What does this fold into?
Amino acid sequence: MRFLAAIITAIAIIALAFHYAKPLPGTNFDESFLPKASSVRYVAAGHDASVGGLFWIKGLTELGESYLTGREYAYLGHVAELSTSLDSLFYTPYYFVGGVTPVDAPDTSDFSVLRRATRVYPENWRLSLYFALRLARGPYPNRTEAANVMRKYFDSPDTTIPDHIRTIYRSFELDSMQTETALETILNDVMQPRFKKFRASFYVKILKLLGYKGLINDYDKDENYQKVKYLVDGMLDGRIPPVVVYNRLLAMKKVEEPAPADTTAAADTTASTSP
It folds into this structure.
């Protein structure tokens, strides 16, 4: 009975906090208030894990609503940070944030979440790979740290680790991270039942991975988005074999254009060498 009373009290306090809190500046969300984990612990009455779960449920609810309204929900990483700060063993936020966050997302709130994941679950190479991809392809690329994150799996005694994961740290070191490996990871994730209602996140994540960096103003009219959607939906519905989807998506990869030559520097060099 005491446990139930504590949970009800915590829910009531959280609900009041969300109701009366002022929204963060620069957003369009009324529900953007997120307290610090250290503050929440005072009202959690020792039930940190339960309260962390409540915040996570709210975050997923808001993420789902953002798909229905066409708005972008920018606080999933922040919610996961709060939830895992309260309960570091809460596995779902780690897996979910790593799965749906685009590899080049400008918001790095997921970094601290994924860094905690690699500490709490060091044997889980998939969580480490999520973090390494973000480090290597995020807004502030750090391929050395990405390689260090994955290096520990090279000589791991775990026989279930694929060979290409054992040696993937070299790809980060050489700045030759393979799109194929990242795409394989995403397609494996999108087939997980837990992500069924958040499939749209993977359409965008795949496009970002393939080099389509711009914002999509109208998803219904964007040819590339619709093609990714058709292929992924066809795979999940059993209409298109996964290997066909994989190869067709790879064929969509944009070729990176080389940086333009510095014509001014070239002209100066020519002038300096002229007699």
Q: What stands out?
A: Confidence is low (pLDDT under 50) at residues 22-32, 263-275.
